[in-house]
Structure formats: C-alpha cells, structure tokens
Design a protein that fits this description.
With 253 residues, the chain is mainly alpha-helical. Helix content is 46%, strand content 9%. The strands form 2 sheets. A two-stranded antiparallel ribbon has the order 1-2.
Length: 253
Amino acid sequence: MGVRAGIINAYGDYEDVLRDIRRFTSLAHGSDVLTKALLGNYALLDRGRPLEDLRNSIFRTALTRNSRCPLCERAQVCALDHFLPKNEFPEYSILADNLIPVCERCNRLKGDECDKIDGLLMFHAYFDEFPDCEILLTDVGIENTVSIRYSLHRSDKIDNLTFTRIEKQFKILGLFDFYQMEAVAELTDQIDLYDETYASLGDSGLRSTLSALARGAERKGVNHWKAALYRALSRNAEFCSGGYRKLLTSSMT
C-alpha cells in the first residue's frame, strides 16, 4: 500500500482509534523518514502557507464556545492541540478532527499524553460528551475564612471507564487547583453583589440569587466549574446567612 492510500485509510480509521487505541499502530511506525515527512506537513498550516485556511476554519469552531478552551472551560484558545499526539501518530498531524483549539496552559500540560497501553484517552472535544449528571462537587468551608475545594464524585449513571478517564483528565490538567483559583477570583469579584442582595433581601434572597447564578452557569454544562461553585454556595446556609462576609477580611484557600 502506498503512503497516500495509507493516510486515507488512517483517516477513515480515526474514530476507531479513539474507541480503542490499543488495537492500532501508527502508519509511520519504524520509519524515521516517513515520520519526519508527515510531521513536516504541520507547517503547511502556518500563516501564508497552503493550509492556512484550514487552520483558520478550525479556530472558528471555537467561536461556538466564545473561544473558551474546551479542556479547562476558562482560558482563551490560542493553540492547536493534537489530540492524538503528532509524535505518536504523525499521519494525523493535519487531520482537522485531531486538531483541537485549546489554551496555552492546557496545551502545555496535556503534551503528548496518549495511553496506548490501557487505552485511557482524555475526553475529545469533538467526539466525547461529558456526563450530564453532577460529578464535579464543591465543598465550601467557613471558619476563620472561606475555603473552596473541588472534587469528583462517582455517579451510578456513568461507567467506571468513563469516570477513570475523567479523573485522569483532571489530574493531568491540574483542574482542581485551577478551578479553586478561579473560584477565588469569581467570589472576590462578586462580593458587592452578595452584600447588596443580603442587605436588601436577607439570606433567602442571597440563596435565590446564587441559585440563579448556578442555573445560568449550567447552560455551559452541569459540571462547569462555576455551576458547581454556585450550587454549593446556594446550599450552604452559613454562607447565605452572612458567612460570605468573611471574604472581606480573609483570603480564601
């Protein structure tokens, strides 16, 4: 089989590779010459090169998410991640389905992650649906300060393999710590809203406001970090009855 035909076949196999990567070997396996040639194709996506329009069209797909990174749901996209790393599968170096617009942080942390032994791939932004049941939880602690901690909770609605993949993704991308920092910034920015709402409507009013913020965030997904945060805050009686004021005197951890 010629190289061109092999690449066409590899493109046709792409979704099968995602389903069980353990069954597949790269077209370029064992050939440094072919690997180098296929990797060289990626430069064709650069500005002024023949595939620049393809690169632009891939980045335009991120507009449906307000150009937010699909891996962390927070930062702006600025790079193309090879879901199946081009160093492992160079035949997919310019396959649009394999190129995901992501932020710099997630692109760097993910790197060449590709578990060909256990077949535990991260979630693909185009082909995988994140579970729509609550699995991302936020623990709100109020003592001398307000503490925020994120964790994952196994749901009976998802299988063990899916949950293991989710755990892996959170670990590789450091999402627990990242979301905690984002929560700190979010609550600090909203402190005036909490204070005004509590002063005029009391704890029930603040609870209703937090619930509304949770519902708004859930439009991005029930497990969006902001949705999990506001659900937890709305359910925390101490926070809603004035405990939020400890944001004014202490930094959160």
